[in-house]
Amino acid sequence: MELNIMFYVALTLLVGSLFGRLAAMIKLPTVTGYIFGGLLLGPSFFHIMPENVVKSMDIIPEIALAFISFTIGLSFKASYLRRVGLTPLIIAALESTLAAVLVASSLFLIGADPAFALIMGAIAAATAPTSILLVMKEYRAKGPVSEMLKSVAALDDATALILFGFCSTAVKILVNTGDQDINVLSSIFQPIFSVFLSLAIGALIGFIMKYPLKYTKTSGQKLTLLIAFVFLTSSVSVGLGVSELLAAMMTGTVLTNISSDAPQMGEFSDRFTPPIFLMFFVLAGAQLNIHIIPTVGLIGIMYTVFRIVGKVIGAYLGSLMMHTPKVVRNYLGFMLLPQAGVGIGLITISAGILPEYADQIRTVVLSATLLYEFSGPVITKIVLRKTGEIQSIPSNAKEAADF
């Protein structure tokens, strides 16, 4: 009997639910359980889910990332933005840049091709802390570290994209043999233009979204509009080749500042997204292969270690410069390590720029991602406990798994 896609959707939900509960029972974040359940389904262990099946569910990560970005945007009220000022932007810029510089420099010093070192540094700048944000949600984290993380995480995508644009331009110049001309100014400003276009798309859709919500009465209709507009934001952004994460974030930001329906949109999002997020992390685990870890060698070790150092020190220096509370300076960087999502997306782009290094780039980044995705949620829980920002511990495994 040939199994259709609905079977694998059901399997993903059941496995994620089971391992989320098991993780909660042994006092681990449920996200860790989701990822481990995915590992069992993928090539790391039993290979129950074929690669083509996982790929056929690519829409799940897109939906998950769009909604988490939209929800972050809903927290950016004008009063909050006036209060935090440039602090999140400075921190995001420093931690991204320092991670890129340290990774690129360390690889260059051990003899790596300068073009390869630059590309790896650019990928190292990216952070995709969806798992961290969901752990915060699970434990109802509230405090200066949690608040700053939301802002920095939202802006990190922009700084990483700009850095990647600069580095990829430099790499194209290094490898150019004269067969093709490179417009350096265009290559440098293109990522900046992409960021602004993403924000413009999100702002426009957020503004338009206010009006149908205003005249919609029932909860079902409002939920339908929420899903439609988040999907619209993501699809238009992807179609134009810009960041759907930044666009969705801006949609939420504009809506929360002009519409009285915004708080209800946050509540609806919380009801709609738990199974989407569960599937997102199960599928992330199913795409990872632990058998590639022994092949990464010294380059993989340097990439993993110096990216961590760059993120932690960069966040510390940015926080110090902007005079944030001491607890933010000491702990924020440790919560910016996960990379699944944006970092994995940059692998494909990098492979087109340096095809001769495509396999090596993929192996190193995926191996590091495996480490970050498993350790990140656990580290986050430890940090939240040490900072005293955990508002409530789920009383039992069922409550934790259903967060």
Give a quick precis of the structure.
The protein has 403 residues and is an all-alpha fold.
| DSSP strand count | 0
Instruction: Profile the largest sheet.
Output: none
> What form results from the Cα inertia axes?
globular
Question: Which class do the helix and strand fractions yield?
Answer: mainly alpha
Quote the average pLDDT.
86
Please state the CA-atom Rg, rounded to the nearest Å.
Answer: 21 Å
Number of helices: 19
Strand content: under 5%
Following the backbone from N to C, one meets helices and strands in this order, namely HHHHHHHHHHHHHHHHHHH
Q: Please report the distance between the alpha carbons of the first and last residues.
A: 36 Å
Low-pLDDT stretches: 395-403
State the helical fraction. over 70%
Can you describe this structure?
The chain is mostly helical. It is 76% helix and 0% strand. The protein contains 19 helices and no strands. It has helices at residues 5-25, 30-41, 51-56, 59-74, 78-84, 87-109, 114-124, 130-138, 144-175, 184-214, 219-240, 244-258, 262-272, 274-287, 297-321, 326-331, 342-353, 358-387, 397-401. The longest helix is centred in the middle third of the chain and has 32 residues, at 144-175. The chain starts with a helix and ends with a helix. Mean pLDDT is 86; it is low at 395-403.
